[in-house]
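pinning this so it doesn't scroll away 📌
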Amino acid sequence: MQEISLNFPTVIILVVIAALAVLAVRRMTRRGLCDCGDHCEGGCSGCEGCAAAESMAAAMGEAAKDK
């Protein structure tokens, strides 16, 4: 079995990956899984009230039917 060696570049890459994971989780906890505030004017109170989210869901539904 090959041993795992942790040299400086490997540690740096692992720290960067961990930092990006923390930022992703932080963003999901603050904004939720619906990110329609970026596309709807004035934000929205969830994916149900956002036309951009509705059109994305419709497109995904059509793509699923085609397969």
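📌 and the second one:
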Amino acid sequence: MHIAVCDDNIADRKQTERLLGRQSDRFFKETGERLHIDSYGNVSAFMSFPQMYDGLFVDMVQSEKDGIEITKMLLDVGVVRPIILCSSSIDYRTRWAQEGTDATNIYFLDKPIKVAELTATMDMIKELKGEETPSLELRNKDKTIYAKDDDIVCVRKKGAELHIYLKDGQVVTLMDEIYNFYDQCRIFPQICPLTDNSLININHIQKRSFGKVQMDNGMIFNIAFSYRNSIKEAQAILDSQK
């Protein structure tokens, strides 16, 4: 599981990291898997791609935007995983009741965080992980689409633009570098590169021959030699998750 901590109090942030590290050890003993924990002290870095996380722990009290405002930002960009507001100097339960939405993925912990309460929260996050489908925000000047599962068929870089082809026939155009977009696609292990300018979803491959693949939307891609093992590696990851 991927967990994020966003806290502008350094001491609190480090303590939360330590507690989550113990939870990671617990999960490893129980399942053989560890938590992937990313820690942030500022909003801009935290908001770069929050949709990839299975659980997000938030307490911002000294920044321009506090935890309530950041939580609303997370909901606005399509975060559906548990957001845990950790109350220190701000009573998030009361504030959320007064200012929040009817979102069902908001939870609360009090600081200092108690081990038993964190354990229960992490077990809840683990249970929900299999129920909710992560999404990738695709936003251009005209609209915003939240792509899930196999919605993305392939991606091709044309000049400064990325053309993202969806299974419903839509094409979303973004101004971005392909390696940045591929980094965001970590939530979809079926997405892999074929060249420095193209990505494909291996679940949409219709036909494969030496050095080429044809997608089920009819598009054909060459496979660069340096990426010759990409499809096999993506398939191995998918198989390991079944």
